[in-house]
Design brief:
Blueprint: E1 17-20, H1 26-36, H2 44-60, E2 64-71, E3 74-85, E4 92-101, H3 110-124, E5 129-131, H4 138-143
Parallel strand pairs: 4-5
Antiparallel strand pairs: 1-2, 2-3, 3-4
């Protein structure tokens, strides 16, 4: 968002809280994920029985940060970041993989609030750095102090 548009940005309501995602949040997270993803279509059965429980377990073990923005008892955004032990950085790198906010709430600071919560968690965990692979949201992350350092390439195993 350009600086001239800041006057139109509505701030996040104080009732919105950022907290750890819970098992009961599965339906809300799946709803947000389906609106967010462009390269993979989440299959609800596998999401509920395999993927979501694995991510919750990873966060509970300290290997990830999985945080929700809650408004009126409903999850309206989430962020998921994975802690990766590295040799090159001399410690863990927290890789922010997913960030999404309900479309009608975007531009109100909620995504920024979720990213700041991840940055605070990274500091508490003594992660060496936080990185984010993105094409579509590079400007958003730059405004939060991230700098471009690499290009990500990907390949499907066996493909």
């Amino acid at each position: 968002m350009r600086s001239g548009n800041w006057s139109r940005v509505r701030a996040v309501r104080p009732e919105v809280t950022v907290r750890a995602v819970r098992a009961a949040d599965a339906d809300d997270v799946l709803r947000l994920l389906r609106a967010f993803t462009t390269s993979h279509i989440p299959e609800p059965g596998r999401f509920r029985t395999v993927t979501f429980p694995a991510v919750l377990a990873s966060a509970a073990a300290g290997r990830a940060e999985f945080l929700a923005a809650e408004d009126g008892g409903r999850v309206v955004g989430y962020v998921y970041a994975v802690r990766v032990p590295t040799l090159f950085a001399g410690g863990t790198v927290l890789e922010l993989l997913e960030l999404t906010v309900e479309a009608e709430l975007r531009g109100r600071g909620l995504g920024s609030r979720l990213v700041r919560a991840v940055l605070e968690a990274a500091e508490r965990a003594a992660d060496v750095e936080v990185c984010v692979p993105t094409r579509r949201a590079a400007d958003f992350y730059r405004r939060l102090g991230f700098a471009e350092t690499a290009t990500y390439l990907k390949r499907t195993p066996g493909g």
